[in-house]
């Protein structure tokens, strides 16, 4: 990365830390719905990372550690999981959850995925659930993961595919922009080299797999799955976005409460198209990408 990009990356990371300081506890409050949404993708990720009994596993951008717990169940008492996140709020939360549940084979540490304070060749496997797309320099992150994996160790990650496949992400900000007469942020042309972190940054076919390859991984696999997002009601969905989507909160900053509530009502009406006979269901799509560090020759 150039110096300017480094500065932009550092700024982005600082914003992420501050955002999750506000939203981490809300994310955790909604985790039953989130885990339900992510359950199939998480199982595939854990399978692709080839996690076995006794393994030492690294979790990148672990959040509140929900998938760390699932990995910990697979490695058993003889294995261990290190849950890492750049957000101190999330790490604190993960530690509390682990302590409350009496789980003894998980530790949680604040760590930047692009600069892992870990020894070379020290983990049997690594995972990341909805984290890699938020790295300013995902190639650097993959190189770091590759470095700390033991030879033949596998890494698997879940990311969103493209924006058109997950309308729950795109409709609310569009409604807000329409109400406030804001311009839609322009997408960069494919020729531009600057990487913009965000939910769909790694979702275009082969983009993530190419980075795996550049980082030195082999036996790279990609799997795309449909994953409907379900809530009991449209109102529940909108409350979830209100609670955890700091970017949406930021768009409404400075508006009086009445205007904010009116806009959220408009968002609710726009999302009613996804109501079903037994609740609320909106389409979404995940990409699970995995690769292996070459073994000792």
Give the proportion of residues in helices: 40-55%
Determine the N-to-C terminus distance: 32 Å
Looking at CATH, the homologous superfamily is Vaccinia Virus protein VP39
Strand content: 15-25%
Structural class: alpha/beta
Architecture per CATH nomenclature, i.e. the level-2 architecture: 3-Layer(aba) Sandwich
In DSSP terms (H or I, runs of 4 or more residues), the helix count works out at 10
Q: Note the run of SSEs as H and E.
A: HHEHEHEEHEHHEEHHHEEE
The major beta sheet can be summarized as:
7 strands, mixed
- Per DSSP E runs of 2 or more residues, the count of β-strands stands at 10
CATH topology: Rossmann fold
Please write the CATH class name.
Alpha Beta
How many domains? The number is 1
Overview features:
globular; 3-stranded antiparallel β-sheet; Rossmann fold; 7-stranded mixed β-sheet; 10 helices; 297 residues; alpha/beta; 45% helix; 10 strands; single chain
Summarize the structure.
The chain is of the alpha/beta class. It has helices at residues 3-29, 31-48, 66-75, 88-100, 138-148, 167-180, 207-214, 234-244, 246-251, 257-271; strands at 56-59, 80-85, 106-110, 123-129, 149-160, 218-226, 229-231, 275-276, 279-282, 285-292.
Structure, explained:
This protein has helices spanning 3-29, 31-48, 66-75, 88-100, 138-148, 167-180, 207-214, 234-244, 246-251, 257-271; strands at 56-59, 80-85, 106-110, 123-129, 149-160, 218-226, 229-231, 275-276, 279-282, 285-292. The chain is globular, with a radius of gyration of 19 Å. Helix 4 (88-100) links the parallel strand 2 and strand 3. The chain is built from ten helices and ten strands. It has a seven-stranded mixed β-sheet, with helices on both faces. With 297 residues, the chain is α/β, with parallel strands linked by helices. Mean pLDDT is 93; it is low at 188-192. It has one domain (3-166, 195-230, 284-292): Rossmann fold, CATH 3.40.50.
